[in-house]
Every structure is written in structure tokens, then in C-alpha cells.
Design goal:
This protein is α/β, with parallel strands linked by helices and 215 residues long. Helices cover 55% and strands 12% of the residues. The model has no long low-confidence stretch (mean pLDDT 92).
């Protein structure tokens, strides 16, 4: 049984899925609309979790800066990159649970992020309805890549930025597909996002899904 001293993990709602599906935007809307507490995985992963990764490298005597960017993004295949990401998600998930254990809220907590994988979350759920997986359609993914600067621009210095970006996009597609497959295998709802509705409308559908737990 997962250690959960304040009952936070048992009462958490989970929003996972693919990159660029609008998970963070939906969580922010629902925090304002429903008074829930939103936990943004990406924010913690880029800060507190990164510090823990660096500390782990120091303990193991590895370079603190991590692997060479070209080795990570240019010379490997998207499939290899997706496999490595899945392994990392598993290692980082316990850090997410640590974050959640430290939260006490009078309202439901909605944890959102692409690293909140169905295969990791499902063992914690008393009902599959406590999780929803959002996956962008390919058309909507391409639109996000055109319109969102953080999606279309590769931020690291590498020898071949175009190839690195293409590898990243293909890796993200593979991870989104595997998240959807893992969710369906566990009876967790998968919601396709095609861009035909605005963020408020998508948030309403997510709220309807979680309505039994929102009070």
C-alpha cells in the first residue's frame, strides 16, 4: 500500500496524456472555476525534481550536466527516446507522490502532467474515473507546433536543431499513443482533443468527467 499519511494521494484526481493537449490550461481553468488545487507536474519536474536528479548524479559520480545534448536529441531514434522517457517517468513518479503527500487541501487536488502515466497511477485509484487521459489528434498537434513558440522551437544547443526537433515531436507522438493504449487497457477514459472547442469548453468536459469527486 502506498504511504499516504494525510490521505492526499487517495483523494487526488489525475489528468495525464500527451504533450500539447491543453492539460495545464484546463487545470488552471478548473482551479479558478471549481476551487480545486492544481498540481502542475512539469513545473515541479523542471525545478525540484531536477535538483534531485542532479543530486543523484553527484552521488553516483556522474557528470552533473547530464548526457550530451547531441547524444540525447540528435543521434538516437525517437523510439529509444520514448523508452528512456518511460523509464524516467517511473523514477520521477515517487517524487511526485512526495510532493502530493505534502499538500493538504479542503478541496480536491488535480494533478496534471504528461509524466503521470496510467500504468503508474492506476494502482493508486479506487476507481478509474479518478483519472482522465487527454491526447491531441495529429492535426491539433501540428497546429500547436505551428502556433506555440515553446512547442515549435528547440531550446537546447545541438548540431542539428531540425533533426532534434523532429525526433522530439516523434517521441512525443509515441508517448501519447502509448499513454492512450495504457489507459484503455486499464479502463481509464481517453479524451481526444482536436482543437474544435476552446479551452473553456474542454475544461467543462473534464469537469463533467470528474463531477462525482468535485462535490
Amino acid at each position: 500500500m502506498t504511504w499516504d499519511p494525510f490521505g492526499t494521494i487517495a483523494n487526488t484526481l489525475w489528468l495525464g496524456g500527451g504533450q500539447w493537449a491543453g492539460k495545464s490550461t484546463v487545470a488552471r481553468i478548473l482551479a479558478g472555476r471549481c476551487g480545486i488545487t492544481a498540481y502542475h507536474y512539469d513545473y515541479h519536474d523542471a525545478r525540484g525534481h531536477d535538483a534531485r536528479r542532479i543530486a543523484g548524479r553527484a552521488t553516483r559520480g556522474e557528470p552533473l550536466t547530464g548526457p550530451d545534448p547531441d547524444e540525447m536529441w540528435v543521434r538516437r531514434t525517437p523510439g529509444d527516446m520514448a523508452e528512456d522517457a518511460l523509464a524516467e517517468f517511473g523514477r520521477r513518479f515517487e517524487w511526485t507522490l512526495d510532493d502530493l503527500r505534502g499538500l493538504v487541501s479542503g478541496r480536491p487536488i488535480l494533478a496534471e502532467g504528461w509524466g503521470l502515466r496510467p500504468e503508474l497511477v492506476a494502482p493508486l485509484l479506487e476507481s478509474p474515473g479518478r483519472m482522465l487521459v487527454m491526447v491531441p489528434t495529429e492535426e491539433f498537434r501540428q497546429r500547436q507546433l505551428r502556433d506555440l513558440p515553446r512547442a515549435r522551437e528547440f531550446g537546447l544547443h545541438v548540431s542539428d536543431p531540425r533533426r532534434a526537433q523532429a525526433n522530439r515531436v516523434d517521441r512525443d507522438r509515441l508517448l501519447a499513443e502509448s499513454a492512450a493504449e495504457a489507459a484503455r487497457e486499464r479502463g481509464i477514459r481517453v479524451m481526444g482533443v482536436d482543437g474544435s472547442r476552446d479551452a473553456e469548453q474542454v475544461a467543462t468536459e473534464v469537469a463533467d468527467h470528474f463531477a462525482p469527486y468535485l462535490g
